[in-house]
Amino acid sequence: MAAENILLLATGILDSAFDSQVLDPCSFLIKNDVPASIVSYEPSAHWSKQNRLEKLGGIPVPIISLRCLPFVGRLSCWFDGLRLRPLLTSSTVVHARGAINAYRYLRAGGDGERLLTDFRGVLGDEMTRYANGISRLVERFRTREVDQMTKLVVQRSGRILAVSEVLKRHLVEVYGADPEKITVVPCVVEEEKFAYSVENRHKLRTAMGVDDRLVFLYCGGIEKWQGVEQTIALFKKIKEIHPSSFLLFLTRAKPQATLMLQSQMDAQDFKILSVPHEDIASYFHAADIGLLLREINPTNAVASPIKFSEYLVSGLPVIVNRGVGDTGLLVELLKAGEVIPEPNSFPEHLEWIPRSDAQRKALSSNAAKQLSIKANYGGRIRKLYGFMDNS
Question: Would the CA dihedral through 75, 76, 80, 82 be positive or negative?
Fold first, then answer.
């Protein structure tokens, strides 16, 4: 039996993960006759932003925006929950993205047995990792609040999603979660947007003048946690051994990235582009190998990078370092690239990485079985919705 109404509870339609991890799954559910809608808590700083209002008007699924208070802990979430309460019915199953949204639902008087909490990471470590001075003291207080909220949410949730096996173990060992309640689902991708295209690949490679180059891809911002410096350093090492190597750098921070790369590399060995998200898959097809390097820390240890899922469903093999959630296991399972011990380690088996069109198509298809919205929201997650509706 399907739930009468699925409410996806999220934060911020301008969040970089909103489209792929909230909007696309909601659209999929609706197309497959599952009544679903979104409630998105909007940070006060974004409430009146023109781009938020424009995007809100163009979202093609039922959505309600609620203005939330600045997060100072359980008290602010209690007030946020009051705004949610009128939207809940006895037939609603709530899929809450993160412990804070799940806590808001519980403070709204929601039934924990109808709550599916979707844990995406270790929020406390994310808050404090790069904070300093007064802000670090504030984040320590907020982290303690999140810790208490997480304990309650873990105890009260009918079911739990975790983006990695490592995160599942963390929830069990640190918060006493029941492992039988936890289902591991990594960050998902819409297969139709990313499935490998031979035509896209050859058209773009010719347009960029890289038909005879070994094209490595970096896609992301230039923040420290993205591992940009390690990526550039690794690429330079690879180029010493493989002179035809070329770095395709996709980022919204094009001016800053240009300054960074121009000071370290020859102009003929890289290209920096800012590409609309709807066109980005074609550039993944055009590349030969994706680079995904992260420092080893508690945040990354449990992570499921969206970019990793997008790379694999695009049929793009990946070089990733150990210590990033379950990415190493998936690379080995799908024969999808190479796992290196540290971000500064040299890949030993570049020549074994699959690069033919047939291999890329096979990788794209096999990865979709693990990482696509269809495989997860049409399968495991939808079954959880039905189970919770009967609880």
Answer: positive
C-alpha distance across the termini of the chain, in Å: 11
Strands 36-43 and 63-68 turn out to be parallel
Q: How many CB atoms lie within 10 A of CB 185?
A: 20
- Residue 260 CB: number of other CB atoms within 10 A? 18
Q: What proportions of the chain, in percent to the nearest 5, are helix, strand and coil?
A: 50, 20, 30
Residues 385 and 380: their CA atoms lie apart, in Å, by 9
Right CATH for 191-371 from 3.40.50.2000, 3.40.50.720, 3.30.1050.10, 3.40.50.970: 3.40.50.2000
Query: Quick one: CA torsion of 220, 226, 229, 235, rounded to 10 degrees?
Result: -60
pLDDT along the chain (391 residues), means of 10: 77 92 96 95 90 91 95 95 95 95 97 96 74 75 93 97 97 97 97 96 96 96 86 95 96 92 94 92 97 92 96 97 96 95 90 87 96 94 80 54
CB neighbour class for 138 (10 Å; exposed up to 12, middle 13-18, buried from 19): middle
Q: How far apart are CA 111 and CA 103, in angstroms?
A: 11
pTM attached to this predicted model: 0.93
How crowded is the C-beta side of 300, counted as CA atoms within 13 Å? 21
pLDDT in tens, 77-133: 999 999 999 999 988 999 999 999 999 999 999 999 999 999 999 887 776 666 666
Which secondary structure element, helix H or strand E, spans residue 118, and what is its range? strand 115-119
Per-residue tokens: 241: 């051994």
Nearest C-alpha neighbor of 195 from the set 114, 28, 46, 311: 311
Note the pLDDT tens digit of each residue in 30-52. 999 999 999 999 998 888 899 89
CB 92 within 8 A of CB 69: no
- CATH number of this structure's domain 5-188+372-389, picked from the four choices 3.40.50.2000, 3.40.50.1220, 3.90.190.20, 3.40.1010.20: 3.40.50.2000
Q: HSE (CB half, 13 Å, CA atoms) of 80?
A: 29
Rounded Cα–Cα distance for residues 206 and 198 (Å) = 12
- Would you call 263 exposed, middle or buried from its count of C-beta atoms within 10 A (0-12, 13-18, 19+)? exposed
Alpha-carbon distance of 21 to 294, in angstroms, equals 21
Side chain identity at residue 22, one-letter code = V
